[in-house]
Amino acid sequence: WNIRRIRLQKGLTIHQVSSALPTPSYLSSEELIQVELCNRKVYDHELWAICQVLKVPVSELFEEGGK
Fold first, then answer.
1. From CA 65, how far away is CA 14, in angstroms rounded?
2. Is the CB of residue 58 less than 8 Å from the CB of residue 43?
3. pLDDT tens digits, residue range 5-61?
4. Contacts 24+ apart (CB under 8 A), 10-19
5. Is 19 helix (H, G, I), strand (E, B) or coil?
6. pTM for the model
7. What b/e string do you get for 32-61 counting C-beta neighbours within 10 Å, with b at 16 or more?
8. CA 48 to CA 67: how far, in whole Å?
């Protein structure tokens, strides 16, 4: 998962991403940290919302080695 790498490249904090997520897909900062660490399942609607906030396609989250 490249969520953390992309978030840091864009200069965003966990809190900024978390607070920008729409209500139905809201993740707290702690939940988002757990997603970044692969310690929590992420549902498709949450993944889509994270991609919207980060402004990246879903496929970029699964690229090996990052860009």
1. 21
2. no
3. 999 999 999 999 999 998 888 899 999 999 999 999 999 999 999 999 999 999 998
4. 10/54, 10/55, 12/53, 12/54, 17/50, 17/53, 17/54
5. helix
6. 0.85
7. beebbeeeeebeeebbebbbebbebeeebb
8. 20
